[in-house]
Amino acid sequence: MSSIVEWLSEVARNNALSHWIRQSSHLVIAGLQIVHVFGIILLLGALLFIGLRVLHTAFASRETAEISGSALPLVWIGLGLAVMSGVLMFITSPGVYLHNPAFKLKMALLLAAAIIQVFLFRRMTRTIVALSLILWFAVGFAGRAIAFV
Amino acid sequence: MSTLPAWAESLEQSPIGSAIAESRYAFPIIEGTHLIALSVAVGLIAITDLRLIGVLLKSVPADEVLRALRPYMLGGFLLVFVTGGLLFWAEASSVLASPAFVFKLLFIILAGLNAAYFEFRVARQPGAWDEGSAISRKVKLAGAASLVLWSLTVICGRLIPYLTKWP
């Protein structure tokens, strides 16, 4: 198991793209960080928007589908931006991230949140949407801690 | 001008400033809360702005969206300002030296003025919420300005650790 992780991290670290990002200005990393934050804002904002309707704290007179239909594309755009920029940051120094406890926690939370998002979220029950919101906000919180642990 | 760095230094060395800076858990917790709260505030504002501009959620009246989301946006902003203030308390000197922070403050002020002008002038004019009316153009413009100004605020905030001093 650990040799697979080591091999993957070596592949991630040792390729033309990761070399280019590492050698370019630190403002490239800053740019990736900015895209990452915009992705997180879109993802969490749109999920909360849907959550407020499902949990009956806003838009009670509207159909859930009316609210979620317009916000779900924002969820996927935000997730796409966050994942793409996140992968590009990861390949600059996979070893550092893989040994970071906050990163490990974030990946575990991310896996759970992604499984719920893909397979269960469309049911739009209160329990699933509340759990999804808690998990995604925890992913953001753990992610912010990576720089400090 | 020399009093500003001195004030920043005394702020950092105050009991609360140094307690935050020296604590192992305070920084990640406050930074994490800052990120989550700004996702709530700016995320919901972006959705509201997109509705004001007319690209999202057209079947729901814009004033209904604004009224429903306002308490959550304001709650998010309160938390963003409190956590942002605590972070500033702990590292005032280095943050003040960054041009990105100065621009961030400027964009926050402009975004606040835009929001106040919208809430107290534009939105209260008769016909403001009628799609296609003359005043609804001002509503769209306020939404676009808000989207741009808050985006610039987030960009500058993220650049603070990367742009540490004026060129």
Structure explained in plain terms:
The complex is a heterodimer of chains A (149) and B (167). Chain A has 149 residues and is mainly α. Chain A is elongated, with a radius of gyration of 17 Å. In chain A, helix 6 packs antiparallel against helix 7 (126-145). Chain A has helices at residues 2-13, 16-23, 26-54, 64-90, 94-98, 101-119, 126-145. By secondary structure, chain B is mostly helical. The radius of gyration of chain B is 19 Å and the shape is elongated. The mean pLDDT of chain B is 91. Classes of the chains: A mainly alpha (149), B mainly alpha (167). At the A-B interface, helix 3, helix 4 and helix 7 of A face helix 3, helix 4 and helix 7 of B.
**Poorly predicted ranges of chain B (pLDDT <50, ≥5 residues)?**
none
Given the C-alpha coordinates, what overall shape of chain B results? elongated
Counting DSSP H or I runs of 4 or more residues, the number of helices of chain A is: 7
User: Percent of residues of chain B in helical segments?
Assistant: over 70%
- Structural category of chain A is mainly alpha
Rounded mean pLDDT score of chain B: 91
Total domain modules of chain A: 1
Structural class of chain B: mainly alpha
Give the largest interface pair and sizes.
A-B, 37 and 30 residues
Radius of gyration from the alpha-carbon trace of chain A, in angstroms: 17 Å
Could you state the oligomeric state of the chains shown?
Answer: heterodimer
Give the tally of β-strands of chain A: 0
Beta strand % of chain A = under 5%
Helix and strand layout, with pairings?
The complex is a heterodimer of chains A (149) and B (167).
Chain A: H1 2-13, H2 16-23, H3 26-54, H4 64-90, H5 94-98, H6 101-119, H7 126-145
Chain B: H1 3-13, H2 15-22, H3 26-53, H4 62-90, H5 92-97, H6 99-120, H7 134-159
Helix pairs in contact in B: 2-4, 3-4, 3-7, 6-7
Summarize the structure.
With 149 residues, chain A is mostly helical. In chain A, 81% of the residues lie in helices and 0% in strands.
